[in-house]
Amino acid sequence: MLSNFRRPLPPLLLLLLALLVPAQRAAAQSQSYNSGASIPTYHPDWMRWVPDSTSLAALSLPGTHDTMANDTEWYVSGVERSWVLAQSVELRPQLDAGIRVLDIRARHVGDRFTMHHGAYYLRANFDDVLATAVQFLRERPSETLLMRIKQEHSEENSTRSFAATFDWYRNASAYSSFIWRQSYIPSLGEVRGKIVILDDFSNGQYGIPWSSLNLQDVWDASNPGSKWELVRNQLTASNGGAPNAMYVNFLSASSFFYYNPSDFAQSVNASTLNYLAAGNVQRTGVMMMDFPGAALIDTLVTRNSPYIPYTLPLRGGSGGAPTSSECPPGAVAVGVHGRAGQYIDRLGLVCRYVNSDGSLGSYHYASAQGGDGGSYFERTCFSGMVIVGFHGRSGAYVDGLGMHCARPATWNIGYGVDSSPWLAGGNGGASFSDLCRNGSMVTRLRLRTWSLVDQMQPLCARLQ
């Protein structure tokens, strides 16, 4: 959006902007918009539920516009930042949340690539991008990443072409085996564990030609309403278009002096989520977003398979360190174990494997996370029931907790805690009650813990 700028904004223009345009809103949150330092959803391996034979063109792929534009130099003013920054979250948390398409804008400086948004350096280099992507794919080999590469701003002190420098990166031993080298749209099975290049700099010599894709990228729309019309029209096209054609739909825009990227994102993201939730679209194609919220990512990811896990709301505070308690593949949660007093001190899942006839088999105790206070507890649902949600109380911590249990054959909700709905913990905080969608059950807990369970977020899934 700032590709026409060749230097930081002059002071007089900054003053005018400060008078006319409010700075980007701090830490605003909604289901469709997120400007916090993390995204409260978790889809690190959602592609493993998608068949190998599926074309990338057939998928609904969440992506981020100006992926690395979550930070810039310290001296850049707040007003400038509101026009430069398009994301609030670093690359790895984006990938863990489910983002699979990256928009990488590289300035060619000294025969290397630095990450830029127009004239503004984003405090990252291409090695940072590739190292993060490769580490993610090492840990999650079921996934693939699509990476649009575009030359940004002016060249400086380079002795070779932009394409030659990209080829140098591509052939580096640390990255070479992770970069797919064809120019056609592949099936997912062909590129699991790989980076697929969307080549926007050499007309397809180094990947899928960007110009061959069906694009909607009007970045200078006059207002959010007009941009939403363009997004909606492209959704209609992608939903009914040729199955082997890849559609790319940018939700991002800015209107200089009037609407910054955050203004557009808050409006267009919300309209998009509402439209998708109404069941108007099955295949969205690639959706490139600024400041995407958890529910918007969720609704894109889960379009690709009914078996992809999804998250329930976060409960608790932001303290502690991230961890998890997970049922192994083929098992579901039927109870919990841990320690509790006035709060939930430690928490883990009790799981059972599902037999081929659908009955519940042997037990598995997933590791409990947290501190050593309180007293030990262990509770399971009634025989034949599984956990389909939780209820309890939370504030800065998870104060108290109970289970929602159901029998898979009927999905009638009941409580499986010795005829009492309460599991353990105290009475502080505010009450909550969260349920998986009909037909799915809890398989994993995302947690933040230290001496207590600071935060919990269940993941729900259907069994294949």
Automatic annotation (TrEMBL):
This is 1-phosphatidylinositol phosphodiesterase. Residues 52-200 form the Phosphatidylinositol-specific phospholipase C X domain. SUPFAM superfamilies: Mannose-binding lectins (SSF51101), PLC-like phosphodiesterases (SSF51695). The keyword Signal applies. One of its GO terms (biological process) is lipid metabolic process. It catalyses: a 1,2-diacyl-sn-glycero-3-phospho-(1D-myo-inositol) = 1D-myo-inositol 1,2-cyclic phosphate + a 1,2-diacyl-sn-glycerol. Its EC number is 4.6.1.13. GO terms for molecular function: phosphatidylinositol diacylglycerol-lyase activity; phosphoric diester hydrolase activity. Residues 1-27 form the signal peptide. Transmembrane segments: none annotated. PANTHER family: PTHR13593, SI:DKEY-266F7.9 (PTHR13593:SF113). It comes from the Bacteria. Keywords: Signal. SMART domains: PLCXc.
